[in-house]
Design goal:
The chain has six helices and eleven strands. Strand 6 and strand 7 form a beta hairpin. It is globular and about 55 Å long. The two termini are 25 Å apart. The protein is of the alpha/beta class and 229 residues long.
Length: 229
């Protein structure tokens, strides 16, 4: 039993390759899409670097049985319409949850990565752009950039070098590829370290893009080196 359990319901997978004595494992935080839950992305952990302590978090808003979201959203002919106030509240919740998780599981605060799908991708961008000091890199999958995230972004010098691997499907009918390209175009104006790739897929995760994501995450761990005890 954790003395101070983190505030969001979540699943964990401990590292399969443990850090050296005295060192702490990196954290990979998985953020699901609207209408899903913490089980949705958890199986992806089996395809990712064994050095990660993986946490798959449940969004705080219940939308129905087994269905949760980071903020309510309506899909209209003009595009998705969300609740900015609730999105901001969930952003604050996630920022706090990162600190809670790092403390609760004795993880490395300098190696925290966010990997989100759809609304989880939106939230990973929101957190990283507004609180870049708490993340070492993000993988937004099939998401979009909230205007609020762009407006509240940290200064350029705080964002300099932030690793981002954004992916999107060219056949996505939920959040069309134009949303992914808008993310690409916006982030290209910032001094982040951006990689953007499109795949012949719908609103989904495929073996091909998951393999690329896994390789990218491993490269980020390798380039940072082993943390000091």
């Amino acid at each position: 039993m954790l003395a101070h359990p983190p505030s969001l319901t979540h699943l964990t997978r401990a590292p399969l390759v443990f850090p050296p004595p005295g060192a702490r494992a990196p954290l990979l935080l998985l953020l699901h899409g609207v209408g899903s839950n913490e089980h949705d992305l958890f199986d992806l952990a089996d395809s990712l670097d064994d050095r990660f302590f993986v946490i798959s978090a449940r969004a705080p808003i219940m939308l129905g049985p087994g269905a949760f979201g980071w903020y309510p959203v309506a899909f209209t002919p003009q595009g998705p319409v969300g609740d900015p106030a609730q999105a901001e509240q969930s952003r604050q919740t996630l920022v706090g949850f990162v600190d809670e998780a790092v403390a609760a599981y004795s993880l490395d605060p300098a190696r925290v990565y966010l990997m989100g799908f759809s609304q989880g991708a939106i939230m990973s961008l929101y957190v990283a752009l507004t609180a870049p000091k708490i993340v070492a890199g993000i993988v937004p999958m099939s998401g979009r950039l909230l205007p609020e995230a762009w407006a509240a972004r940290a200064p350029d010098d705080a964002l300099a070098g932030l690793p981002v691997f954004a992916v999107h499907g060219t056949r996505d009918t939920v959040l069309p590829v134009s949303e992914g390209r808008a993310v690409r175009d916006a982030l290209s104006r910032l001094p982040v370290n951006l990689t953007y790739r499109e795949y012949d897929m719908a609103h989904q995760v495929t073996a091909e893009n998951l393999s690329d994501i896994a390789a990218w995450l491993t490269a980020r761990l390798d380039e940072r080196g082993q943390p000091e005890p």
